[in-house]
Amino acid sequence: MFKDKGFAASSMRDLAETVGIEAASLYNHIKSKSEILQEIIFHAAAECNLQLDEVDADGKSSLKKIEEVIRFHVQMMLNRFEEYHVMTHEWIHLSEPYLTNFTTQRRNYVQKMESIIDEGIRNKEMKPVLPYVAMLTILSSVRGLEFWHRSGKRISPQTMEDNMVNHLISGLKKN
Asked: Among positive and negative, which fits the CA dihedral 116, 121, 124, 127?
């Protein structure tokens, strides 16, 4: 519902109706719709952070690390679109201190991705690009898969993932 209507336009009554219970009964299980938003966003963010930490700790090349990060994000967009969409679009509705917590996590995530790209450039695995621009291009491209979901095109998720990875990695790879 948060993906389809947006957080602001979703009411507790709507949520209760969607899950098939009375609104008053819903309050026995959760305090507010903000609590649901927090759970969705921080669950997805925790998975992203865990995956990036694992990839970064691995002894693989920077290019391979970035490939794995791209594959992870593409799979999130393809297989868990609603959750990923809520994390990337509805986070602005978090209340404090959750908003600051999330923006700090996001900033750290971006810096860690930039660091991996910078390392790849220093190691001559990647073209000399601005790490921030490369990171922004990768994450923006992945978010663009929202159009694939809406298009109804019959391209398999695996084909979509492989094509995106190949395209994005070829833009970074040093010849």
From this structure: positive
Measured distance CA(137)–CA(30) in Å, rounded: 37
**Which amino acid is it at 168?**
L
**Over the chain, what is the mean pLDDT?**
93
Contact 52, 139 (CB under 8 A): no
The whole-model pTM stands at 0.89
- Give the alpha-carbon dihedral of 55, 59, 60, 62, to 10 degrees: 70
Q: Per-residue pLDDT tens for 61-110? A: 999 999 999 999 999 999 999 999 999 999 999 999 999 999 999 999 99
What is the full DSSP assignment across 104-165? HHHHHHHHHHHHHHHHHHHTTSB-S--HHHHHHHHHHHHHTHHHHHHH-----HHHHHHHHH
Cα separation of the two ends of the chain: 46
